[in-house]
Specification:
By secondary structure, this protein is an alpha+beta fold. The chain contains seven helices and eight strands, in the order αβααβββααααββββ.
Length: 208
Amino acid sequence: MTVLPITSPLRAWAERRNILIGARAIAPGDEAKLWPEEARRLGSSLLDRLRASGAARGLARDLLSSLLAPPCAILADADRVPLWPPGFVGSLAHDETHALAAVARETDVAALGVDLEPARRLEPEMTALVATPAERARYDDELLGGVTLFVIKEAVFKALFPADRRFLEFRDVEVDLEAGIARARYGARCAFFWESGVKIYALATRES
């Protein structure tokens, strides 16, 4: 397992909240990290998807073991929400090359979400779908044209959806980068931290 560097500000932010977070490159053979139940659920998925899913779930199991959680299959419900061992919460994500996972005890964190994307420019029409009017007024074109808000909001969606089961559009969430707070239109709130480099990583935790 390759975790985010110990000096990573994102990892430090997570550890202050008793969250374990890790990232690793997806490699040939990661499909074998899927437990039989997980592989059956994925069925005839393409090899790339099986590898990414195996990498993310294997990473999550490694992190859970550090919290003394029992080894288990990480299945998903009808809404594709991962099912965690009793007493634990977590989130999974991957892009084409890397997997990301975060876990915590329910006694420390109500819910969390993670996401990652390569640092890149969004298509102009996508920018219009992601940013709210307030965000377009607050942030410059450089930030609005990249994936930062996209990644943060994806992490927020993952933190909010398991409990609320509300499907949100990007503009249903308002992001305050300076405060590290994101608010959903219906009132739920998440704290978040993001880190940029070759990839953009985001971790969100439900606050209310």
